[in-house]
Design a protein that fits this description.
2 helices; 82 residues; mainly alpha
């Protein structure tokens, strides 16, 4: 008897949860998702010209500029100690 009650209580809870979501939250969720997507596109568009101007690409730490800078620092330290 208790097992049947729990089975149907869980089912009714799922149905009620879905109905409440559709009535009160679904439209807000869809609008929020659209706003986030548009903001992400705007950020991408804004950051692209900077990457092109600076000659940067998506190589991250493997850019030659990073290693050149580290090499200059090490050369400077080496010259300082000798």
């Amino acid at each position: 008897m208790i097992a049947q009650f729990l089975r149907f209580a869980a089912l009714l809870t799922l149905i009620a949860n879905n109905t409440l979501y559709q009535l009160f939250l679904e439209s807000r969720y869809v609008r929020s998702t659209e706003v986030v997507a548009v903001a992400g596109q705007e950020i991408t568009q804004i950051s692209q010209p900077e990457q092109i101007q600076n000659g940067a690409d998506d190589s991250g730490l493997f850019e030659s500029g990073v290693f050149d800078s580290l090499g200059d620092v090490l050369t400077g330290l080496n010259n300082h100690w000798i």
